[in-house]
Amino acid sequence: MSDASHAEVEAEFGVPIPGRILTEDLWAKTAVKRLPPPGPLDFATLFGRTAPVVLDLGCGNGRSTLSSALARPDIDHFAVDILPVVIRYFTRRANQRGLSNVRIAVIGGRELLQDYIAPGSVAEIHCYHPQPYYDRREIKKRLIVPEFLSLVHQSLQPEGLFVVQTDNPAYARYMRTILPSFFTVTEQTERWPDAPHGRTRREILALQQGLPVFRAVCHRRDELTEIDLQAAVKTLPRPTFDADRRLQKYDRLESGDVAPHGKRR
Length: 265
Ligand SMILES: C[S@@+](CC[C@H](N)C(=O)[O-])C[C@H]1O[C@@H](n2cnc3c(N)ncnc32)[C@H](O)[C@@H]1O
Description:
Number of domains: 1
Largest sheet: 7 strands, mixed
Shape: globular
Bound molecules: S-adenosylmethionine
């Protein structure tokens, strides 16, 4: 292996980061520094080949996309987050692992679907631990709402897959209410067999802290028409739930502000 001399293994919360750092001549260029003006993204040109496309919305430091891209080299992965700093970490790791099947951009998940994804063009969409937002003034920022699910439905190919999960019980209850209007939902109650410590940084933390993790494996309901989607968006409840401020302390652990034993880093 080209990186046999690289003795240091990167880890977060004690769980190794997937993959290995290659020698520099094998690095990839995964950053999409500037998105084109709104319009359907041409994935064939972007990746230089035609392959199924998987999106990771709110990817954070990108652990789940790293694992998926390493395990599925025949599939192309497009991951986004609104936070440039986490995208920088992720881009470095994806580049160093030579992942030519990954592209990463700074943009909101909803904006990506709305402005850049052609209808019926992606095979899978993943959304791990979207922020619950605790302050009432911020609840309009919640990502998993009927309009967003309608966009997910429209972006997916027939029988396409949507995976969404949260460790916030109120958000989970809300998702359980609205997801079936767009998808056939199966709950993954056990840990992911491919990632028993957690697929993402947040899931690893949630499992280590004993938080309940709601994992929904959703298949697109292909029988739904545009009119059905519009009716669902109009009639489903709004995300007005109380996310429970007491859970905010875990966000500080996740962002690395506070070490797991409670001390400031
Ligand atoms: C709790 S973290 C989870 C990150 C990662 N998916 C994980 O499970 O470790 C939520 C992430 O969503 C990002 N985010 C918040 N609102 C977003 C939006 N509208 N579109 C895309 N990403 C968003 C945040 O910057 C943050 O990185």
